[in-house]
């Protein structure tokens, strides 16, 4: 099961965690009026629109995303200097080399299947001195939701179904290696410790489902998903308090210069 209009619309209502992570990344980038910015994995475009306000009328912001459903929402945004295209991080061939001042990659890199190729593409489309900003989950830290997913999907009968294009969270050393190989010699990486809050188990699973375009359940068929959801809910219940669920997350935030 891929993305759906329902999941895409649900994400626009529940993506405050990713949005705030993106704002943290933007606070570390030097985006100025008139700049050209590429938003890789733009989703429904709410952060893309925020960036458009930073660059002003003299700038340009382009968003790409593999999801037609999320792009349909993004393309409804009224900003004149915004444009959106369907595509993947590994193939930015529609853009000329050196055509952007900033490449912005928020809550996206772990879904990219060929991360080394994507990193080379980021470098290619940046002008000399341009900035690459990346924020995403750290492979050095395993969040509760990852443990619960692995536990439940490792049980029978779910374990018989292999996940297609699973997420891959890079460790800091791996990220450093990819940046170096792509030619990003000047770079800083910091850890952004955040807390994801949810009302209850259902609320948390809904957030995970909309955030992953329906990949919360890995590769299991639709008829088994309600059963998997119930098992996931049971695993989440011990983490529910009077204040709901609070899940610690660790993000790696990178700013690199071409």
UniProtKB/TrEMBL annotation:
UniProt key word GTP-binding: no
The keyword Mitochondrion is assigned to this record: no
Top-level taxon of the source organism: Eukaryota
Keywords tagged on the record: Methyltransferase, Transferase
Stored Pfam families: Methyltransf_11 (PF08241)
UniProt cross-references to InterPro entries, sorted A to Z: Methyltransf_11, SAM-dependent_MTases_sf
GO molecular function, one term: S-adenosylmethionine-dependent methyltransferase activity
Sequence ranges assigned to domain Methyltransferase type in this UniProt record: 38-132
Name listed for the protein in its UniProt record: S-adenosyl-L-methionine-dependent methyltransferase
């Amino acid at each position: 099961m891929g993305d759906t209009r329902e999941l895409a619309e649900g994400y626009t209502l529940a993506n405050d965690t990713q949005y705030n992570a993106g704002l943290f990344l933007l606070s570390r980038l030097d985006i100025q009026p008139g700049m050209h910015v590429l938003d890789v994995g733009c989703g429904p475009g709410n952060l893309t629109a925020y960036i458009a306000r930073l660059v002003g009328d003299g700038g340009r912001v382009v968003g790409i995303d593999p999801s037609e459903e999320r792009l349909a929402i993004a393309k409804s945004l009224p900003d004149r200097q915004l444009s959106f295209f369907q595509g993947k991080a590994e193939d930015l061939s529609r853009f000329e080399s050196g055509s952007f001042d900033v490449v912005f990659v928020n809550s996206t890199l772990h879904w990219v299947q060929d991360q080394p190729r994507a990193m080379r593409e980021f470098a290619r489309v940046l002008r000399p001195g341009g900035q690459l900003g990346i924020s995403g989950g750290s492979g050095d830290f395993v969040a509760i939701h990852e443990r619960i997913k692995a536990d439940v999907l490792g049980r029978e009968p779910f374990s018989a179904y292999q996940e297609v294009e699973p997420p891959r969270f890079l460790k800091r050393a791996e990220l450093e290696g990819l940046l170096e190989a792509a030619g990003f010699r000047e770079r800083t990486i910091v850890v952004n410790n955040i807390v994801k809050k949810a009302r209850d188990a259902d609320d948390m699973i809904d957030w995970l489902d909309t955030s992953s375009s329906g990949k919360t359940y890995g590769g299991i068929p639709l008829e088994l998903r309600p059963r998997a959801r119930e098992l996931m809910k049971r695993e989440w219940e011990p983490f529910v308090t009077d204040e709901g669920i609070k899940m610690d997350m660790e993000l790696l935030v990178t700013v690199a210069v071409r």
